[in-house]
Design brief:
single chain, alpha/beta, Rossmann fold, five-stranded parallel beta sheet, about 50% helix, Protein SanA, affects membrane permeability for vancomycin, Cell_Envelope_Assoc, Rossmann-like_a/b/a_fold
Length: about 220
């Protein structure tokens, strides 16, 4: 049995190495395009304000300190209050659990703030479960089912809007977003958009939440 000359062996190894490098570079290029396209969609939806009428206005939770909403949460509550006063819905759903040792949940702190600012207690509903976005949206969906509500106007931060809306739609709700106009800016904004895009891709593939913390946002 004849064998190729030894001089041919490095050529074959070299060609294999070239194809391996091309495969890796191609995979990296595809991954970059997918992440970039997803990040663009995060940015695109962040600019949308779908403040149409809905069965409920949903305020996604953020940090609270012994019943006092953090600046991020207060911004969401002020926006939800504006929507409520504009007649976009007769019901506001506050969302979010608590950390160990907390006296209040995020939902409770939000409800207290809204009532103190003139919203009748009968119009505010709490969904106190959910330590991440997906669990929060599922809690909202369960509450909506009990009240025969089908549509939601979701209030969160701009860069969080697409993922919130997608998760709510996957739970069977007709979901719209009306984001606050606060949130990270500059380099921090870019980093947050990319991380939010990665979280969205994770959700698409795994159907699970990969929530982002940092920059004062949940």
């Amino acid at each position: 049995m004849s064998h190729p000359p030894e001089s041919a062996q490095p050529g074959r190894r070299g060609r294999a190495a070239v194809w391996a490098r091309r495969t890796v570079l191609g995979a990296l290029l595809v991954a970059s395009l997918v992440l970039g396209g997803t990040a663009f969609r995060v940015w695109q939806v962040a600019l949308v304000d779908q403040r149409h009428s809905a069965d409920m206005i949903v305020v996604l939770g953020a940090a609270q300190y012994n019943g006092d909403p953090s600046p991020v949460l207060r911004g969401r509550l002020e926006h939800a209050l504006e929507l409520y006063r504009d007649g976009r819905s007769e019901h506001i759903v506050t969302v979010g659990g608590n950390q160990r040792g907390d006296n209040y949940t995020e939902a409770q702190a939000s409800r207290i703030w809204l009532v103190e600012h003139g919203v009748p207690e009968r119009d505010v509903f709490e969904a106190e479960f959910g330590s991440d976005t997906l669990r929060s949206i599922r809690a909202v969906s369960e509450l909506a089912g009990r009240h025969d509500w089908n549509s939601a106007l979701i209030v969160s931060d701009p860069w969080h809007s697409w993922r919130c809306r997608t998760m709510a739609e996957d739970q069977g709700l007709r979901a719209m977003v009306s984001p606050t106009r606060s949130g990270p800016t500059g380099e921090v904004r870019t980093a947050y958009i990319l991380r939010e895009a990665a979280a969205m891709l994770f959700y698409r593939v795994m159907h699970a939440s990969a929530d982002i913390t940092g920059y004062g946002l949940d």
